[in-house]
Specification:
Distance between the termini: 31 Å
Shape: elongated
Low-confidence stretches: none
Number of strands: 0
Radius of gyration: 19 Å
Structural class: mainly alpha
Order of helices and strands: HHHHHHH
Largest sheet: none
Mean pLDDT: 82
Helix content: 55-70%
Number of domains: 2
Length: 140
Amino acid sequence: MREESFVRLYEVLSNREAQDIIRAESPGAKHCPFLIESPDACTNLPEHYREKAGGAVCPHNPFFNPQLIPKFEAAERNAPLIEDAFVIRDMLRTRTLPAIERLDPCVFQAARIMAEWDRAKTLEIQARMSGFGATREPEE
């Protein structure tokens, strides 16, 4: 689960009131169900999740997962660029992107990349919904 306000929430780990204020600022965003249930879940998962997670530390916590640390740092470094890319994607979806002759070449390239990404995600969702590409348990 990707918590969109992870950095800010992590700064106030264990403080439910402060976390609720942060989540209230972006009600439509994805919020971690573990942190909603327990305000210190990043480092102290509720008991009923521990066996599946393999311990008390959340497996999605980038500060404790060496494989996630470089990805998390790169995402934080590139956050403004990523945000711009999603704005461009939304403009493509709503057909509000300016005419091509008025676009900066970098914006055009970003729009092309985001359009391809959006198409790929749509195809992936359609494949999962129709049963193709879905992970299934082996039948006995």
